[in-house]
Each structure stands twice: as structure tokens, then as C-alpha cells.
Amino acid sequence: MGEAATVPTLSTLPAAQRDAALARFAFLRPHLEDGVPLARLAREGAVPPRTARRWLARYRRAGLAGLARWPRADRGQRKVAADLQGLVEGLALQRPRRSIAAIHRQVVAVAAERGWPAPSYGCVYDIVRRLGPALLTLAHDGAQGYAQAFELLHRREATAPNAIWQADHTQLDLWLLNEHGQPARPWLTIVLDDFSRIIAGYYLTFVAPSALGTALALHQALWRKGDARWPVCGIPDVFYTDHGSDFTSRHLEQVAADLGMQLVYSTRGRPRGRGKIERFFGTVNQLLLGDLPGYAPAGGAPAIPTLTLPTFEARFRAWLLDDYHRRIHGETRQAPLARWEAGGFLPRLPESLEELDLLLLTVTKARRVQRDGIHFQGLRYLDPTLAAYVGEDVTIRYDPRDLAEVRVYHRGTFIGRAICPELAGEALGLRELVRARNEQRGAVRRELRDRAAIVERLLALRQGAPPPVEPAAAPPQAGPAAPRLKRYRHE
């Protein structure tokens, strides 16, 4: 048996090898301490005399570590010419990746041309196997594959609630019925608080990820939820996302600048530190989707859907608030809700919901106010304030999740909300409509009278005549009472 080239120190020995070395020292101790002949110890211990002498020599040379069993430094290596080994390694590192059999055939051909001894398949296999995985990954997968597998990560860690929020999307492994009754897989966008792992906002849709989905999820995350089970709100210090087009829009940059929220993007092509969100998506699959009809794991056949998106969203929300937020997290050792509330801090909020709507709700449409309201997507929206804008062009902003009302802006100024009676469950009364109509008519008549008075005054001054004196208002005459409501033909 060959010896190792160098004997490591005792501190580098594994526990099993230390025990083996100690057992050999116990065999040698009578000879070392009491002078018992080594041949006698070998005979009584059934150890070959040559082995006993070798143990003694190794102990005297290296101490207890010398008695450990160390493999040969060249164990498992085959002796091949340096040029032949270099050829095998070079072929193994070429792109595209070659099979061992292909490398062996080519090496045998080159060896025959050069008069070298032909290596066996096992010899080629051993040479390739000894190549480092990092070297193979860099050669075959490039710099990006190498960085993904072997480069050290800088993991962002928040130290308080609302210090860092992360956002991402995933297409769920669940088949639902869309609005046309066809099977479709929904997309889930979430905003996660890095410190507590609580979900600050989410958005479910059948549409692929877009700036709209991000805006709606962030809108929900920033504002109060109106649900005591879900107190998360406020403006985060940092909003951390990847380089998706929906996250890098100029609009989101404007929103962040206005709210005082720092945007941080992961390295392009290397979405590092996003394992927390991926873990949440895995939790959704394991604890929620697996028990629902229509669940189809990745790679499986499409399942038969029975749920609609609104039905699934109700189940998802209930699971999120009553289960996930209250379940002990495996990494933080606290429930997300308890960890978020433990800080006792006051979150920074936008100045108003209207201001937040103007910033985030990017679904805008230009419309002209008609005599019967605003027409949009086959629906009609009414509000008394629209009486002053009949015939005017306005901009409406709306939440696609709730079409019961739209927010109306005229030349960038918010003028009010208009409701769709069919969806909102409330109707605009005729008396209220007539009052708004009469007030607007009176305002227009007063403006017309004021403009006419200005013209008459200026013309009189130009002609040198004294300005006309407005007649005093005649006292009201008694007569039959006028009807309170005036009907029109179109009513």
C-alpha cells in the first residue's frame, strides 16, 4: 500500500479516523510506555508484524495523526499522457456538450494518428468526471448559468415592517372558468413585506402580467383595506422588483418619486434574493391549490375546471387572511401578521385616496359627457355634477375589478364619481336629476345675462351714452302655483 504524500494534522481528521488512530495507539502503547516487545504485541493482537512496524514508524514520524487511514493521493486516477488528458478535457469543455462516448471515439482516432496508446472508455470517463462542476457549467451554460449556480448571493434583509416590499407574478397551477365559460389559468400578482412575509396586496386576473396588474396590486397594498384582519398599509421605504416591463415603466418611477418610495431593481437577468416570493408561491400551491377542483401541477394534464375567478378569489382571500397570515413562518418563527404588528409603528400613507387613484389607476379613457351621462363598455354612468359638463370631453379612471363607479376628471381636475345604477345597486332619483339640471340651466342663464350686460355697457360707453340702468325687479304677483317639476319630451 502506498503512503499519502503528506499527513494532515490531527485537527483535520474526521471523528471516525480519529477513533481508528486512537485504537492503533492503544495497540502500540505497551511497547511505547512499558517496553513490551512489538513482536509479542503483534502475535497477541493478531496483527502482522510488518503492519505493526509500519504503525510504529508512522506514529514516531507524525504522532497520532500518522496512525489514521489515509487514501492514496492518486487513488482512482489512471496514468495517461499529459497531451491525451488535455485532449479529453478540452473536448469535454466544448460547446455544445459532447457525450462521453463521442469524446472517447474522437480521442481513440487521434491516438491512432499520433501513435499513442488508445485509452479505454473508463479512462476517458474518469478524466471527464474529475473536471470541476463550476468549470463545466461555465463552459456549457455560459456566464449567466455560472453566476446563477456558483456566485455568492447578496440577500436583502429588511429590519422593520414596510422597510422593503417585493412584487412578482406567477401563473397558478389551477384551471378556472373565465367570463366566456372557457378553461383558463389565472395570474397572481402579489406585494410582499420582506420583514414579516405578510402580503400587503394582490391582484388576480386572466390577463398576462402588465403595468395595470402591478398598479392595482400596489394600490391595494398602499391603502387601508377596511378589514380588521388585514391592517397592512402604508408607503414602503424600498420597492424591490425585477426588470420586467411592467415594473420599469416611467409611470411607476413617477409614482415612486411622488410617494417618496425608492425603486430598487434586481440585476438584469439575475433576479437574486427573490426566494421569499417564490416560497410564498410554493405555499399557495401546497396549502391552497392542492385541495381545489381544477388543480393541475406543472407538467400534468389540464384538469376540469369548476370554479370561476370571483369564487376562487373569495377562497384565496379567506385563506390568506385566516390561515397564511396567522401561520408560524418557518424562517422567521413568527406569524406574518404578528411580526408586522409587533413593531408598533405608524405607516406613512398617501395624502388621500383620490390622490392615490390619480397616481396608480392607469386605466384611463377619454369620454364625452352625453345628456344621459357617460357611456362606457355598454354601461351608463350618472352623477349630478355631470350636468355642468354636458358636451364636454372628460377623462375617466376606473378599477377593472369594480366597474360600479368611475372617477371623472376634467382637464386634470377631479370633479366626482359617476355610478352605474345597474352595478352599484342604487339609482339617481328624478328629483335629484331635475334639481341638478335646473341649477345648471340657471348658472348658464346667469352667465349669459352677465355677458350681455358687459356688451351693452361697453357699446353705450363707445357711443357716449350713459350706461343703461338695470330695471328694478318687479314684485311677485299672486297667481296659480307653478308645478314643482317640469317635464320634457325626452323623459
SSE order in H/E notation? HHHHHHHEEEEEHEHEHHHHEEEEEEHH
The outline comes out as: elongated
Q: Quickly give the structural class.
A: alpha+beta
Average pLDDT for all residues? 80
- The strand order across the widest sheet is 5-4-1-6-7
Question: What gap, in angstroms, lies between the N and C termini?
Answer: 110 Å
Which range best describes the helical content: under 10%, 10-25%, 25-40%, 40-55%, 55-70% or over 70%?
A: 25-40%
**Number of continuous helical runs:** 15
Residue fraction in strands: 5-15%
Q: Total strand count, please?
A: 13
Q: From the alpha-carbon coordinates, what is the Rg to the nearest angstrom?
A: 41 Å
The main sheet comes to: 5 strands, mixed
Low-confidence stretches: 1-5
What does this structure look like?
Helices cover 40% and strands 14% of the residues. It has 15 helices and 13 strands. The strands form four sheets. A five-stranded mixed β-sheet has the order 5-4-1-6-7, with helices on both faces. α4 runs antiparallel to α5 (100-114). It has 491 residues and is of the alpha+beta class. It is elongated.
Gist of the model:
With 491 residues, the protein is an alpha+beta fold. 40% of the residues lie in helices and 14% in strands.
Task: Give the helices and strands, then pairings.
Elements: H1 15-34, H2 38-45, H3 49-62, H4 82-92, H5 100-114, H6 121-129, H7 133-150, E1 164-171, E2 176-177, E3 183-184, E4 187-193, E5 199-205, H8 211-222, E6 238-241, H9 250-259, E7 262-265, H10 275-287, H11 309-322, H12 336-341, H13 353-360, E8 364-368, E9 374-376, E10 379-381, E11 393-399, E12 402-410, E13 413-419, H14 421-424, H15 430-462
Parallel strand pairs: 1-6, 6-7
Antiparallel strand pairs: 1-4, 2-3, 4-5, 8-11, 9-10, 11-12, 12-13
Helix pairs in contact: 4-5, 5-6
